[in-house]
Specification:
The complex is a heterodimer of chains A (556) and B (163). With 556 residues, chain A is α+β, with helices and mostly antiparallel strands. Chain A is 38% helix and 17% strand. Chain A has four domains: 105 residues, Sulfite Reductase Hemoprotein, domain 2, CATH 3.90.480; 157 residues, Sulfite Reductase Hemoprotein, domain 1, CATH 3.30.413; 96 residues, Sulfite Reductase Hemoprotein, domain 2; 143 residues, 2-Layer Sandwich (Sulfite Reductase Hemoprotein, domain 1). Chain A has 19 helices and 20 strands. Chain A has a five-stranded antiparallel β-sheet with strand order 1-2-5-4-13. A five-stranded antiparallel β-sheet of chain A has the order 3-14-15-12-11. In chain A, helix 1 runs antiparallel to helix 4 and helix 16 crosses helix 17. Chain A is globular. With 163 residues, chain B is an alpha/beta fold. Chain B has one domain: TIM Barrel (Alpha-Beta Barrel), CATH 3.20.20.70. Chain B has four helices and eleven strands. The radius of gyration of chain B is 16 Å and the shape is globular. The two termini of chain B are 29 Å apart. The chains are: A alpha+beta (556), B alpha/beta (163). At the A-B interface, helix 1, helix 2, helix 5, helix 6 and helix 9 of A face helix 2, helix 3 and strand 9 of B. Chain B: It comes from Hoeflea halophila. Chain B: It holds the Pfam family DUF934. Chain B: InterPro entries: UCP030820.
């Protein structure tokens, strides 16, 4: 993975000092909260319902064990012993003191981490496929490009006061695990027919109150043109994006209102001036950044095949876990292991300091010191020999980290909701917990198969409800919490926005409603081979609506 | 009280006044500037964020100063206007930030090509007068300011030392 050089270290240290100065000026009253707000946001500091919240960047979701131990230390020292992994591959601390923030940032800097641009109307932490550099199906590792974008976008003088936040995601496989079509810019690394690397470029995706999927503006942008092209997009957006209404300020609205063809013409015209300038990436620099992401030297471990088969026969729990949580690696003797942060009845994405320390240790022992954070709020050990899966599983069991539910109905994405968030209208976490408990039986989950439930506690959609196979949106109606259901959303290469079923459900009805939907699917599906989303796309919303609102229809 | 600051310090007797002011040489809004350009005298322009800076291209050599407006600190359009004026149109004259100019934005403004600042906030004036700017001298991207190529990668820059 990327290692800081002297320049990076000096930059992050200067940034910490800069923030310390800003906090001092705020505490002395020299700057108002209004003026301080964008400054603290650009360092990841939010003011939440009960306390300040700090969001630490995990660039493209990649961590080593030393960094994970530091995250555990911060949870223990400055927070209440836990942290919350987010849908943007970051980690949030919910209870730190403002006066401790500079010190926390200094501790992070020691392990080459920061909280730069994890919030604010600027280019946010760049995300990537959590299986990058290990997945069997990628054309190349997308993370070097995410790192180049991370550097280029850090404290960008022109693009720090954009109309609204700006999110970039990079993937390098046909199978989209980074949800690029829901980002302001989505980049898919690919090869052209000459074998050269470049990007399909998508712009204008986003969720929030107006969910829109991104539009493709380039089928193949040569890799050398990455920064100049992104600059052209950013400049057109900065000059022309709406600033009169924060809910219409994302680039998706500019794309929608201007029209993708006209906007693309403007971007290309701007790019024509930039493409041969200082931002053209030299091959040597791309190669130098790539060198940091050289895959670890993975020795052959063919013995794992036989051992794995024997272990699976003797322990059905282990077999289930391998079946759900281990995915194919580039090296046939290895697997990519998802560590579920969705224990049955637990809070999605939360991990205790002890669990973080355990993951750090296991990454050293079994995964060449590498850990990933996924946008689905789980962790990944990307390079585990099949021969090591059994001892790894035993160790995870002890830590409460061996839940075999990756991609199943209890692998729920949920935002922090009204338990923490100042924007929320309704709670998300208790809804996730109750659904998880209802469907917690392993046999029942397995029978249901792949199903993504995503829960947001308000229209800002941090819980990605628009792209959940089943999406749940918490709203407030006459002072009470109400949950709207949408069906048919998806965030992968066949992305789609879910459709609302009808009137919402109260907190005591929502889990029953989800069960009704699941039962309808089980009745309607052709066979267990037909997943929920495939079945929904075949039969449409009507059978689900009929089941959900049957009693109303009878009453009428 | 509003003062004008440049990297050389606070400017005494600045001649340029905002439209509507009683004294000094007026900064002209874009439409008036294009009209005025038929005369021969040099003049100053004040642009709003929605103005297209490229309209000035034909008359740029006659412009003595361009003021770009930050109606609120959150409105960052003038950063791109400044980049276009410096990099695209090659404007080399004075470029002033007016409106809401916050201390923490001044380093970014300097990077995008601003070289004078109209400031009203007393603690900000004090910091600027003391030349205690809250900026970072290491940059991950080229901009309009004069910098050295940074170490390592083509996109990096380091600030020129003051002096």
């Amino acid at each position: 993975m990327y290692r800081y050089d002297e320049f990076d270290h000096a930059f992050v240290a200067a940034r910490v000092n800069q923030f310390r100065d800003q906090v001092e000026r705020r505490l002395s009253g020299e700057i108002s909260e209004d003026a301080f707000k964008p400054l603290r946001l650009m360092n990841g500091v939010y003011l939440q319902l009960h306390a300040y919240m700090l969001r630490v960047a995990v660039p493209y979701g990649t961590l080593n064990s030393r960094q994970m131990r530091k995250l555990a230390h911060i949870a223990r020292t400055y927070d209440r012993g836990y942290g919350h992994f987010t849908t943007r591959q970051n980690i949030q601390y919910n209870w730190p003191k403002l006066s401790d923030m500079p010190e926390i940032l200094e501790e992070l800097a020691e392990v080459e981490m920061h909280a730069i641009q994890t919030s604010g109307n600027c280019i946010r932490n760049v995300t990537a496929d959590h299986f990058a550099g290990a997945a069997a199906d990628e054309v190349a590792d997308p993370r070097p490009y995410a790192e180049i974008l991370r550097q280029w976008s850090s404290v960008h003088p022109e693009f720090s006061f954009l109309p609204r936040k700006f999110k970039i995601a990079v993937t390098a496989a046909e199978r989209d695990r980074a949800a690029i079509q829901t980002h302001d810019i989505g980049l898919q690394l690919k090869k052209n027919d000459k074998g050269e690397l470049g990007f399909a470029v998508w712009i204008g995706g986003g969720q929030g109150r107006t969910p829109i999927l991104a539009k493709k503006v380039r089928d193949f942008l040569p890799e050398a043109d990455l920064l100049s092209y992104v600059t052209a997009i950013m400049r057109v957006y900065n000059l022309h994006g709406r600033r009169d209404n924060k809910y219409k300020a994302r680039i998706k609205i500019l794309v929608h209102e201007t029209g993708v063809e006209k906007l693309t013409t403007e971007i290309e015209a701007e790019w024509a001036h930039l493409k041969d300038g200082e931002l053209k990436l030299p091959e040597a620099d791309i190669a130098a950044i790539n060198a940091y992401f050289e895959p670890p030297k993975l020795g052959d471990r063919a013995e794992g095949w036989g051992e794995l088969a024997a272990w699976k026969r003797s322990d059905p729990g282990f077999a289930d876990w391998v079946g759900r949580n281990v995915a194919p690696h580039q090296h046939p003797d290895y697997g990519m292991v998802t560590i579920s942060l969705k224990p049955i009845g637990g809070i999605p994405g939360d991990a205790t300091a002890e669990q973080m320390d355990a993951v750090a240790r296991l990454a050293e022992d079994y995964s060449h010191d590498e850990i990933r954070v996924t946008h689905e709020q789980n962790l990944v050990l990307p390079h585990v020999a099949l021969a090591d899966l059994e001892p790894l599983y035993r160790a995870l069991l002890v830590e409460g980290l061996a839940t075999a539910n990756a991609g199943l109905i209890t692998d729920i994405i949920a935002c922090p909701g009204l338990d923490y968030c100042a924007l929320a209208n309704a709670r998300s976490i208790p809804v996730a917990q109750e659904i998880s408990n209802r469907f917690g039986d392993p046999a029942r989950q397995a029978e249901i198969g792949d199903l993504k439930i995503k829960i947001s506690g308000c229209i800002n959609a941090c819980g990605h409800h628009h792209v959940g196979h089943i999406g749940i949106l918490g709203v407030e109606k006459k002072g009470a919490e109400l949950y709207q259901i949408s069906l048919g959303g998806s965030a992968d290469e066949n992305a789609s926005i879910g459709q609302i079923t009808g009137r919402g459900f109260g907190p005591d009805q929502i889990t029953d409603a989800i069960e009704t939907i699941v039962d309808t699917y089980l009745t309607e599906r052709i066979s267990s081979e037909e997943t929920f989303i495939a079945c929904y796309r075949r039969i449409g919303a009507e059978p689900f609506k009929a089941a959900l609102y049957a009693s109303e229809a009878e009453a009428a | 009280m509003t003062v004008i600051w440049t990297q050389d310090g606070i400017v005494e007797n600045d001649p340029w006044a905002q439209p509507g002011s009683d004294s000094g040489s007026k900064l002209l809004p874009l439409a008036e500037a294009l009209e005025h350009a038929r005369d021969n005298a040099a003049f100053g322009v004040v642009l709003q964020p929605a103005d297209d800076v490229r309209a000035l291209a034909p008359i740029l050599d006659r412009v003595a100063i361009i003021a770009l407006t930050f109606p609120a600190f959150s409105d960052g359009r003038a950063f791109s206007q400044a980049m276009l004026l410096r990099e695209r149109l090659g404007y080399q004259g004075e470029m002033r930030a007016v409106g809401t100019v916050l201390l923490d934005q001044v380093p970014l403004m300097l990077r995008t090509g601003f070289d004078s600042f109209e400031v009203a906030h007393a603690p900000t004036i004090k910091r600027l007068a003391e030349k205690r700017l809250p900026g970072i001298d290491l940059h991950y991207q080229p901009a309009a300011d004069e910098t050295h190529a940074g170490p390592g990668y083509s996109w990096r820059r380091t600030a020129m030392l003051n002096g």
